Amino acid sequence: LDVRSALEGGAKEIVLTGVHLGSWGYDLGAHLKDLIQALLRETDVPRLRLSSLEPWDLSPDFFSLWTNKRLMPHFHLPLQSGCDLTLKRMARKTTTESFRALVAGARAVLPEAALTTDIIAGFPGETADEFAQTLEFVREMDFAGGHVFTYSPRPGTGAARMKGQVQPEVRKQRNHILTEVLEESGKSYREKFVGRTLPVLWESTSEMGEWGWQMEGHAPNFVRVQ
Q1: 114-121 and 74-76: which strand pairing?
Q2: What is the pLDDT of residues 76-125, one digit of tens each?
Q3: Read out DSSP for 22-64?
Q4: Which of 13, 133, 134, 191 stands 20 to 30 A from 47 (CA)?
């Protein structure tokens, strides 16, 4: 009903979002895949996009749905760390091996899909070697962009009580290094589309004096276009 109402109101793109979107349907004996198929089958939504998805909620065959061109080719898959030991301390239900398989599954169906991520720099116990592993893995994944968050201890959390708290200046330095890598791979991804024509959902317009107007919006792969 919400989707139909939005479409009747003129919406051109629907974004499915949630705190833990990939867990949709667990209490119903269903899966997010079922919801996506139902929306494509029962509505005429022209563009359907998904927000952040936890890697452990998905299997590589999940991406077979994207043969339908109404699904936008952009996947935000939070990695948080590219080192298995760090992931274990984070209690993340994924490994670099399973994440690698997931990315391969997405790219097998959509070679040019935008894959973005989130990473935490300086999680407690992260040694120089563990950080090097994360850096190498992030380079290997060749993300189209992402966000790097500097770890910050929060009172009352298990992580705040962990041994091996990384010094603030080291956390910031690691954030800077990871951010540069993501910016570089993101730039390389965007450059692939220079000179090509893509459909754009225009979202804003601003006046530019005698030059007219500047429009901004997103292509299906979430690349911002002006």
Answers
A1: parallel
A2: 999 999 999 999 999 999 999 999 999 999 999 999 999 999 999 999 99
A3: GGTTGGGT--HHHHHHHHHHH---S-EEE----GGG--GGGGG
A4: 191
